[in-house]
Specification:
2 domains, 9-stranded mixed β-sheet, Transcription Regulator spoIIAA
């Protein structure tokens, strides 16, 4: 797929019976955080107006997501849409464009004369705290004054890094009411950081965590990665214990993936079954250690400390790793918006030259162009079934068969017989007395392979046709 060649979307009904699932040969097929994957989106020749897309949607429980595509460095495993080392001239112009996009987006939301209300917000990236304190203040102003989100009244989260979690930036986040701050540490051991092509020092990590703890955000999350070359259960335990010493409300454990166009591509020696076994061994060890330390597991990656604000706030706000539903409004390059019938976004890439080109194109976009969806995926009933199933089944609460039936007219096992047969055969799923289908502990370990079993043929074909760039 070219970055500049438009193609028209011609949806066909998703097949709910694609035949037997693929052989589950590896537990690490891909990270499933939203369905369908962004590689399934295609550029529209003349996208629908946002006023039309949002005319029939609920507007009283919207979520706001802002994507900031900048980082101070690019880690060896990173395949996110981000640019490193952008000067203030670029970040300033990005915010100018983001404000223009926000204005026309709000106009579209309010075109029917209905009042809008945001109940959840997040700043992601990239690294949002790559922006200076002054720029972060302006970003919050855009969300509040232009988009109409009351950040002090809703749960909202932001991602940061050890190098950018400075006192002045943290002060802005605290003053504007951030409820959750997530810091990507990945490992507390410098030799493992070097193996992951992540130039960070332990002293810098410790100083950042000290500042974040002093700010007393309701939820502090620490990201860790397992599967780094040379990492052992003992060394992974060192990082987990260092994280536990900070008493964070959340800890995320991510498996290392090595993707095309990343710094580790072609350099990571661990491949095949040996690497799978290493990652599974590290995952199980880390999971068991966190459970013993008083954390509860809510998905393959997410562990929340029992009896803390993380559990109560996340439950009350409906926050989860797979938090995806109609009513998501995205701003910025790569941010996705979800309506009932269409998921849409901007152009997307990983390769450095393409990322820079797309950022330049975004900054130069005429305001009127933001009034239409640009890159999109058309949803239908089959795709909505798959999206709902993935965002419930991959969570520890599982899929309520009664709720699924009310939504879609039949039990999930009737729509996806071969997939559920494969899960039952491996003892990766159980039906609880409440009528809920839940993954077993081992099923949860294989969640990154279970998710893709439920992808439609249309999504798989689109992803296969996507050319990494």
């Amino acid at each position: 797929m070219s970055g500049s060649t438009p193609v028209r979307i011609t949806p066909r009904p998703a097949a709910d019976h694609p035949g037997p699932p693929e052989e589950l040969a590896t537990p690490y097929r891909q990270y499933v955080y939203a369905y369908p994957h962004q590689k399934s989106y295609r550029r529209l020749t003349s996208g629908p107006l946002l006023t039309e897309l949002w005319a029939a949607e609920r507007l009283d429980a919207l979520s706001l997501y802002v994507h900031v595509p900048f980082c101070e460095m690019r880690c060896g495993f990173c395949n996110l849409f981000t640019r490193t080392g952008a000067p203030e001239e670029v970040t300033g112009r990005f915010l100018d464009t983001l404000e223009r996009q926000a204005r026309v987006t709000r106009e579209a939301l309010e075109a029917q004369g209905r009042q809008i209300r945001f109940t959840l917000a997040a700043f992601g990236g990239g690294t949002p705290t790559y922006l200076t304190a002054t720029e972060l203040t302006r970003l919050a102003d855009i969300c509040e004054d232009v988009m109409g989100a009351d950040l002090k009244a809703v749960p909202w989260s932001v991602e940061t890094s050890p190098a950018t979690a400075t006192d002045d930036r943290i002060a802005v986040l605290a003053e504007r009411g951030a409820t959750r701050v997530s810091i990507g540490v990945q490992t507390f051991l410098e030799e493992e950081a070097r193996a992951a092509v992540r130039p960070q020092k332990r002293a810098e990590v410790d100083a950042a965590l000290t500042r974040l703890k002093a700010a007393a955000f309701p939820i502090l999350n620490i990201d860790l990665i397992y599967g780094i070359q040379g990492q052992t259960e003992r060394s992974f335990r060192v990082s987990i214990d260092a994280a536990l010493a900070r008493e964070p409300e959340e800890i995320y454990l991510y498996p290392l993936y090595v993707r095309p166009l990343t710094g580790l591509e072609g350099r990571h020696a661990e491949t095949g079954d040996g690497w799978d076994e290493q990652r599974l061994r590290l995952y199980r060890s880390g999971r068991d250690h966190l459970l013993a330390a008083g954390y509860e597991q809510t998905s393959m990656r997410v562990f929340r400390r029992r009896g803390t604000a993380a559990v109560d706030l996340a439950d009350d706000a409906g926050i989860s790793e797979y938090n995806q539903q109609a009513g998501m409004v995205g701003l910025g390059i790569g941010a996705r918006s979800f309506t009932t019938d269409l998921h849409y976004t901007t152009d997307y890439a990983v390769a450095v030259p393409e990322v820079r080109r797309i950022i330049d194109d975004y900054i130069a976009t005429p305001t009127d162009d933001f009034r239409r969806a640009q890159w999109a995926f058309r949803m239908d009933d089959g795709e909505r079934r798959r999206m709902y199933l993935l965002q419930t089944l991959l969570e520890s609460t599982g899929t309520s068969e009664a709720q699924y039936r009310r939504r879609f007219g039949a039990p999930p096992r009737e729509h996806f017989p071969s997939q559920f047969a494969a899960l039952r055969e491996r003892d990766w799923i159980r039906e609880h007395p409440s009528g809920t289908l839940r993954l077993t502990p081992e099923g949860m370990a294989w969640a990154d392979a279970i998710g893709p079993l439920f992808f439609s043929a249309r999504v798989n074909d689109a992803m296969a046709a996507y050319q990494d760039r």
